[in-house]
Design a protein that fits this description.
0% strand, 4 helices
């Protein structure tokens, strides 16, 4: 019985028999992030993916609406609305911290402190 011929492209070598093949090394799996920063990013990922699935205009509109209500309502509890806005801004600042310049860092910290300060003044009844 004749041996079956296998077509191989020019320059290719035949494969060795299965019992002598050495498995190809797999690329190493990504090691788990052990740092606090890595765990923070990993914990934030589900919320970020959910926000990414929303229409792009929705988050800024909701954030601006909550900020507007927090500033215009006369009730002292409206300071909590400002704390909600500040918490979101602080979270976004913390996530983007390594990627932004020093000038942007300074500006974001000032804005975060201003919103927190307005929330405290609102809760104290002075605004």
């Amino acid at each position: 019985m004749a041996k079956k011929r296998v077509h191989r492209p020019e320059g290719s070598r035949p494969l060795p028999p299965p019992e002598t093949r050495v498995p190809e090394p797999r690329p190493p799996a990504e090691p788990p992030k052990a740092s606090l920063r890595g765990r923070f990013e990993d914990a934030s990922m589900p919320a970020l993916m959910w926000m990414r699935s929303l229409p792009s205009f929705l988050i800024p509109v909701v954030l601006a609406s909550v900020l507007f209500l927090g500033l215009t309502l006369r009730a002292t509890w409206s300071g909590y609305l400002l704390f909600l806005v500040a918490a979101f801004l602080i979270w976004m600042t913390a996530l983007s911290w390594p990627a932004i310049s020093n000038g942007s860092r300074f500006l974001r910290v000032v804005v975060n402190l201003a919103v927190l300060g307005l929330g405290v003044l609102k809760l104290m009844g002075r605004l």
